[in-house]
Amino acid sequence: MKRLVVIGNGMAACRLLEELTHLAPDLYQITVVGEEPFAGYNRVMLSPLLCGGTDEKTITTYPHQWYRERSIRLITGSPVVEIHRHRRQVITAAGHVLEYDRLLLATGAAPRQLPVDGVALKGVMSFRDLHDVRTLLSLPAARVVVVGGGFLGLEAADALVKLGHDVTLVHSRGHLLNQQLDETAGHRLQQDLEARGLKFVMQARTQSIEDNGHGGVAAVHLGDGQRLPADYVVQAVGIVPRAELAARAGLTVNQGIRVDDTLQTFDPAIYAIGECVEHRQRTFGLVAPLYEQASVCASHLAELGHRRYLYADSATRLKISGIDLVSFGDFSGEGDTLQLALPGGYRRLQIRDNRIIGMVLYGDVAEAPFYETLWRNCTDISAMRATLLLGEAFCNLPGNGGNTQEEIAA
Amino acid sequence: MSICTTCPYCGVGCGIKTDGITLQGDKQHPANAGRLCVKGSSVLETLGDQDRLLQPEVNGQVVPWDRALDEVADRFRRIVDEHGPDAVAFYVSGQLLTEDYYVANKLMKGFIGSANIDTNSRLCMSSAVVAHKRAFGEDVVPGCYEDLELADLVILTGSNTAWAHPIVYQRIAAAKQARPDMKVVVIDPRRTATCDLADLHLAIRPGQDVPLFNGLLTWLDDHNALDQDYIDAHTEGFDSTLHTARKQGNDWHALAEQMGVSQVDLTTFYHWFSACERTVTVFSQGVNQARNGSDQGNAIINAHLATGRVGKPGASPFSITGQPNAMGGREVGGLANQLAVHLDIDNPEHHAAVADFWQTETLATENGLTAVDLFNAVESGQVKAVWIMATNPVDSLPEADRVRHALMACDTVVVSDCVASGDTLACADIRLPALGWGEKSGMVTNSERCVSRQRPFVKAPGDAKADWWIVTEVARRMGYDYAFPYQHEHEIFAEYSALTALAGRFGKRLDMTAAAGLSADQYEQWQPQQWPLQGNPRCFADGHFATPNGRGRFVACENPKVRKIGDAFPIILNSGRIRDQWHTMTRTGRAGRLFAHLSEPFAALHPEDIERYRLKEGGFVRLSSKVGDALVRVTSDTGQRPGTAFMPMHWTDQFSRRARVDALVPARLDPHSGQPAFKHTPVNVSDWQPRWHGWLFTVAPAPAVEYWARVPVDAFLQTGQVQRYRLAGDADLTEQQLHDWMPEAAQWLALNDPASGHFRRAALDSEGRLLAWLAIGEELPLCDVEWLANCFADEAETQHLALLAGQPVDAGPDLGPVICSCFQVPQKTIEAAVEAGADSVEAIGKGCQAGTNCGSCIPELRGLLETCSV
Predict the structure, then answer these.
(1) Which residues contact B552 (CB under 8 A, 6 or more apart)?
(2) In this predicted model, what pLDDT tens digit does every residue of A89-117 receive, in sequence order?
(3) Which of A115, B135, B420, B743 has the CB geometry, 3.0–4.6 Å to B53, for a possible disulfide?
(4) Do B751 and A387 touch (CB under 8 A)?
(5) β-strand B681-688 against A345-352: which pairing, if any?
(6) pLDDT grade, residue A405 (50/70/90)?
(7) For B195-214, b where at least 16 C-beta lie within 10 A, e where not — what string?
(8) Would you state the pLDDT for residue B408?
(9) Are B809 and A337 within 8 A, CB to CB?
(10) Cis before residue B393, ω within 30 degrees of 0?
(11) Which residue in A has a C-alpha nearest to residue B775's C-alpha?
């Protein structure tokens, strides 16, 4: 049997293992090296976990038994320190030396660190893994400043509010989730979260974190001179692909580990998937493309490889504090803007040449698959434009879309 | 408890039985024997305190009755003292009851001393009055409804009977069904709904009635079909009349061509007329409302006199009135050229008798100003105070815009009305709240001289009072208390009935004397009766007429001058009624149901004209005449003669932005009757293309846009009744405007597509109830207006998307809660996948996508796998 070593035990790695063991159950003797001391868990569920919506057992989607059933050796809590490409060996911190015929890098990403003074203080945390969640859950009631109004920052802040903390979220842009939402939806999200007790300071750049004199946090200082007293800081300002190991092994690394369309690195024996890779100048942070990479890569490792990974712009689907959000495409302003606002939701479609080019759904996302299909298929929507925002059911009503002129005898 | 009363609408005068909650036709009433039309059936829906005038107002201030009555009396007194009695005027209405009419006439002619009291009957019936007086010596309709059933030939001319007098039409239809040999001829330039019943439709050119009936007289002469004995014994003026009629010759081919009909149709009509001894010719506004309306009436009567067919069973000319009590008004003398009870102002004997009866020395000695002249005199300042009762001259008189300006500039305008808003009320200095139908009590006379009671069955709203009471109180305050002692309407009716003795004294047929000593109780118990009371239901059957020598008079009718149709105004505009509306919609406009038939003002044109003038069916047309313009919808109607158009007369500024047909009509009058020619207005037409269309539901007044038409919705919010507006405009809209058209609201639903000009708004209160709804688009936004109307009436909250869509959507089967939010997969879909054989989370994902994105729902999928496979 061939030997496959997988570095990383995150969602991409687990999905690949699932597909690979299904496609070629007897091809490899597989060893998985996970840095974290856990079996495979669903990182997406960390936010529900933080606010008590679920438990560790439930989010452990790949328990130890799952590995045993597939004869996969799982090494946890021991990071890989070196890859010897010539010897085709992987060495862990605990001293394991693992031979491989094929190596898969799924090392993920690390939270970006704020480039400010005080970032190393005790009490400055991230929200990335199960360990972080455990730390956050152990905090006494306190003043917390969350830096970053992206998805993770909002999830953390919302959960911390629910845990009883006094939370202020600092965001550098004018509206929240500025990658995923337009201004209207971003403002609406802010209002909805404010109603739940979360405070916001928008368009604020973090200048420094003040030491409380004991190595802990006293306050966050903003660019405009504002001082936000705080006991803890959670930084959620994005992620950086973890590619140091690959770089040291001599693989081509730019922002992430460079891979081709078959997810192969510079070294034909080594594949990489997930947040650690760079594919066609693009890095990744959402789960959908990772799964697609895992699937393509699994087919190649299974020696059934004919598929290519090509990035498909997919919809971003998020849920923040129970509020569903879906967006895709370009909604920055090109083309015609169509908006629908209801107490329970907001919809925006961006139309160019009678085609949907972008969408934001806030709150009520039931129509997301409908719009996504129209977007993917580049469907000409001119006949249903009048009812498009109202949803699929209204576009299918008889008479809608036609130019029916009403009778005076209405 | 049920009461018997009379319908407030047309001159058929149907009996109604109602307890205020349900309503039926009165089976005992001779006019309708239980039948009712849609307007009559829905009259209860027009009641209610909504938009009623409830308190007297002087200069916009609510005042007690005493103050308002003093103000009216003082102003009239002062103006009469300073400028003479002819400086004041009353303009009254066929909607008034006989008692109201009587006291108004008595006050103006008898005591103020001017004959400046005219009525809106001038606009509909005065040519028939002239025709009757010229032919019979008295304004008498000789026949009765039964004649329509006895006739072998019924000619309906200038009358869309099916819509304007539906029960008369139904009676003819029933008779024709029972006797299929009976023939019906409709003479009308339009092919109307009435033509459904016609064996022959003569779609003559507008204004060809006199040539048609002159031709008939010639034909009768040519074919030995005259009743020469009758002519010799009972008439005068035949020879000169025939001579005049014969001037156009008897080349039937040429005449048919001139009239715009086929020779066969023309001679068929003549043949039928000569062959049918029992012939009734029903004529109405299409005959009366012309510059030669009186002659048109006499041309018809000439043919009946020439064949001896007057006042005989199944044989008579029959003028059908438009209003419920136009006839009652004519009887008491409510026209400026009548004295009272069919007597004449300029007849010294009549004058002396009436002055003696009323015990007055100030009885008017000269005819007063007829409607159009009256308002001209208001405009010129000659009349300085006018009191308008129960009518809407700003909408119903020709050159209606000029009437409005005249009233706005007039020293004193008093308006008595039952509604709070109206185009005439808007000009009033003093507004007096009058009783409406169902509240007021009195008599009305219908088209066959049948006198019936209107009885009250609901309490008067606010401080509204009977018109007779208001006039009586003003008369007393002007110093005539001795002549106006009335405490109850029956005293007025008794006095009027007694006065008709004078009519008898001067040889008139009007005779109500049997009711002169009527007690209050007898008045209450009054059953419908025709006058002459205790007489023959038909008049002049014996060939004896109310002329001084007792002979019926032929009236020589010259053919009208042929007016060339100019290029500037190439279309002849006709106006008239539609089936479900009445006059200026002050009552029918309150019932949303009555807009279901026709909901917007329109102009009907022949498809050829629509094409020729580059109009669009269903689009908008701007009509302009020499005196005004209108903006209405285009209806295509092959029943129109090319070169003609038809507009309904009903829409006012209360119901549409600019759809008052009478703003287009120039004030051209019949020289004898003073009746305006409403049926013959030269106009031009041009397409109007709005840049946007819309619907607006709100309780607020219409927004200031180029076109709007209102329909009331049967839904009431705290702020008032919901109205539905159809909107269109050619100016760019701003979001601010849309905002301004909507009320304050707790919640909003909004759709914006500015690039295609599509906007929708729904305003909701904090409990989610609909307050207002708006949709604007480059084309008319789709919605189900009836469903939306129900959403306003419904207490229940409606799904927001459906509300914004303005239409219901089938929610489909309940698929349970959404389990996979990424792909919006509901529980039932997942269960179906499991039942179809999916035995793992992956298999579910393959089957229905669930769990294949973020995986958050995988635990739930596992749970479903377990529960479903058990």
Answers:
(1) B135, B136, B234, B235, B236, B305, B310, B540, B543, B545
(2) 999 999 999 999 999 999 999 999 999 99
(3) B420
(4) no
(5) unpaired
(6) very low
(7) bebbbbbbbbbbbbbbbbbb
(8) 96
(9) no
(10) no
(11) A386
Place of tokens 């009765």: B144
Distance CA B81, CA B86 (A): 11
Helices B238-246 and B209-222 pack at an angle, to 10 degrees, of 110
Q: Which residue type is seen at B607?
A: P
- Shortest Cα distance, chain B CAs vs residue A377, angstroms: 17
Tell me which residues of chain B, numbers 594 to 613, contact chain A at a CB-CB cutoff of 8 Å: 595-600, 602
Percent of chain B with pLDDT over 90: 83
**pTM score over 0.95:** no
Shortest distance, CA A304 to any CA of chain B (angstroms): 20
Angle at the Cα of B41 (from B37 to B47), degrees rounded to 5? 135
Is B845 within 8 Å of B853 (Cβ atoms)? no
Find the radius of gyration of the CA atoms of chain B.
Answer: 31
Burial B266-275 (b: 16+ CB within 10 A, else e): bbbbbebbbe
> What CA–CA distances, in Å, run from B194 to B168, B190, B262, B374, B468?
11, 10, 20, 35, 38
Among candidate residues B68, B92, B103, the one with its CA nearest the CA of residue B429: B68
B514 touches chain A (CB under 8 A): no
What separation in angstroms does the CA of B609 have from each of B109, B573, B615?
A: 50, 13, 8
- Amino acid, res. A112: R
**Percent helix / strand / coil, chain B, rounded to 5:** 35, 20, 45
One-letter amino acid for residue A283 of the chain: T
Q: Name the helix (H) or strand (E) containing B725.
A: strand B720-729
Cβ of B812 under 8 Å from any chain A Cβ?
Answer: yes
Beta pairing, strands A217-222 & A89-92: unpaired
3-state secondary structure of A344: coil
CA distance A282 to chain B (A): 20
B349 vs B62: CA distance, rounded Å: 46
pLDDT confidence of residue B378: 97
8 Å CB contact between A146 and A170: yes
DSSP string for B363-390: ---S----HHHHHHHHHHTS--EEEEES
Residues of chain B in contact with residue A44, where contact means CB-CB under 8 angstroms, are: 854-856
Tens of pLDDT, residues A307-366: 999 988 878 888 887 889 999 999 887 899 999 999 989 999 999 999 999 999 999 898
| Nearest CB partner across the interface for B752, out of A54, A338, A366 | A338
Q: What does DSSP say about strands A239-241 and A109-111: parallel, antiparallel, or unpaired?
A: antiparallel
Q: Is B852 helix (H, G, I), strand (E, B) or coil?
A: coil
How far from B783 is each of A331, B690, B803, B805, CA to CA, in Å?
29, 19, 9, 6
Cβ contact A291–B754 (<8 Å): no
- Please name the residues in contact with B64: beta carbons below 8 A apart, sequence gap of 6 or more: B56
CB B495 within 8 A of CB B102: yes
Q: Where does residue B130 rank: exposed (0-12), middle (13-18), buried (19+ CB within 10 A)?
A: buried
- Residue B253: other Cβ atoms inside 10 A: 11
Q: How far is B283 from chain A (nearest CA, A)?
A: 29
Give the chain A residue nearest B776 (alpha carbons): A386
Q: Which residues of B touch A337 (CB under 8 A)?
A: 752, 754-755
> Given this model, what pLDDT does residue A408 score?
52
Contact list, A368 vs chain B (CB under 8 Å): 824
Q: What is the pLDDT of residue B357?
A: 97
Q: For residue A317, give the nearest of B598, B618, B822 by CB distance.
A: B822
List of chain A residues whose C-beta atoms are within 8 Å of the C-beta of residue B812: 393
Among B750, B758, B822, select the one facing A341 at the smallest CB separation: B750
